[in-house]
Amino acid sequence: xxxxxxxxxxxxxxxxxxxxxxxxxxxxxxxxxxxxxxxxxxxxxxxxxxxxxxxxxxxxxxxxxxxxxxxxxxxxxxxxxxxxxxxxxxxxxxxxxxxxxxxxxxxxxxxxxxxxxxxxxxxxxxxxxxxxxxxxxxxxxxxxxxxxxxxxxxxxxxxxxxxxxxxxxxxxxxxxxxxxxxxxxxxxxxxxxxxxxxxxxxxxxxxxxxxxxxxxxxxxxxxxxxxxxxxxxxxxxxxxxxxxxxxxxxxxxxxxxxxxxxxxxxxxxxxxxxxxxxxxxxxxxxxxxxxxxxxxxxxxxxxxxxxxxxxxxxxxxxxxxxxxxxxxxxxxxxxxxxxxxxxxxxxxxxxxxxxxxxxxxxxxxxxxxxxxxxxxxxxxxxxxxxxxxxxxxxxxxxxxxxxxxxxxxxxxxxxxxxxxxxxxxxxxxxxxxxxxxxxxxxxxxxxxxxxxxxxxxxxxxxxxxxxxxxxxxxxxxxxxxxxxxxxxxxxxxx
Amino acid sequence: xxxxxxxxxxxxxxxxxxxxxxxxxxxxxxxxxxxxxxxxxxxxxxxxxxxxxxxxxxxxxxxxxxxxxxxxxxxxxxxxxxxxxxxxxxxxxxxxxxxxxxxxxxxxxxxxxxxxxxxxxxxxxxxxxxxxxxxxxxxxxxxxxxxxxxxxxxxxxxxxxxxxxxxxxxxxxxxxxxxxxxxxxxxxxxxxxxxxxxxxxx
Lengths: 494, 202
Description:
The complex is a heterodimer. Chain A is mainly α. Chain A is globular. Chain A contains 16 helices and no strands. The relative contact order of chain B is 0.30.
């Protein structure tokens, strides 16, 4: 009991409650968690989301997502029982919505890994508020992505042939093919993302276990928490494992979209055969992924009462990354045209001219408006701190990045070398149904995650609060934001 | 300060000496638990731990925890993944050895006059297997070193200890520590500023 009173007395000494932490003054570090929050209130807020009565709005959202998922089910069953002819793709456009959706969803996943791994290595502490659901987004996006190539192989019941499994035919996958690189890259990415997400969640699952009232919740959270008890000896190895996973996930995430871009860049097709593809695709993936994180974060912080944890500064930082990667993408769009012109290659030049002025010019226009023009609003701080402008830009980029893949894939294929083999592509209702359905799958999984799992990485958020740092001790100097000038003490020998 | 609470699971063990016991000292904040950890370390205790809802910077040194061998495990599994991936692509794509059972027979396949095996074309797959195995090593190595999963621990009997995953900071000294003495150690914990001390035995 004494501890409680002492704690609350100590904490109420910090009475100032900040509401704006978007200052760019480099002389002081802004607080990442606003309001009069302490360790207990963070726990309360986040665990309450899992334990409270399910709000009606959740049921409504879940019903909509589930019906879209049902649509996906119907389309997939129709596809499996009839054949891939129910899709609109046919020679010359043999890759269409299936691969567009695949690249789109894989790309979305990249923001989650960037937040969880790359920003971790760069010591960007603000990532702690958003990394958990960004990682969840990664995993669900990769699930949606995996669906499309698996169905596109035509006979998905033989999809295990993609993996090197010993068999009586002595047939092995062709390791020199970018398509097989893709199999390895995407499945490794899915596995490592899942491990990273789960490992990071173990301490928070333990929190849910210890706070759960019902027996079922205690047992289920307890099983997944693996018996975590916050031991410092365990934390030591946990932190090291987390650092190593971040260090492994960083090159992995860069490799995944590079490998996806090899599917195109290694081909000889004008419009695909470009060395700029790997960095261009990675930047585009992060760009599109951050748009999706913002699309999820803005409503989530509003509806789940997380405004003090996911603050305006977090949104602003994400907008800045989106603007930066968007500029890389815009540069790539430009340099593609320059290279086509400079190469003196007629087919290459035609591919790009056709892209911008041919029958799919409207798609190119949508892409340029959404990916190049709209994000320029984010140069202005007024726009970066206005949730409606943020949402507008994020939705534009979501649409634009889907169209980017459509433009790259369809416009390059539909008119290649010989005019006699040119053709047009039109999606069928199954194509459109599966695109909508993949959003159903994504949001169904995401809503389940929001309902039952810790949406915010509580343990990590607590580490970036001032109270997490001892005001003395060997690593005192590790923490900078505290303004009082205590000289660093050297570690004791032991 | 509060007195020592004795909690024992009477229904679990009717008689005989306790099979497990520990003293749990609760501390108010990071500062207090860090200072206490240094003192417990200096007092020469061996079987003890600090439990906190978040990793505390500097606690490793305050407790005198030696660096984990996990990076070496990850290096080993990563190198195994590298060797395995290299072997896989080479064997399945470039070797057809007579006498090998059909299921393990390779499948050399000429494409555009390219060599059957060349490193550059095979790097993506080797890279992915390396990362995959290293990640498995990091996760499962961490779990094994931490002796997880261990779904039950006698500490979970303490109601107070549940706050170790929310906002409580605890120093736990195990009863099988050579310097452990229920009365003196409890006194010691209180002298370090523990706001509550609990003797837990099963």
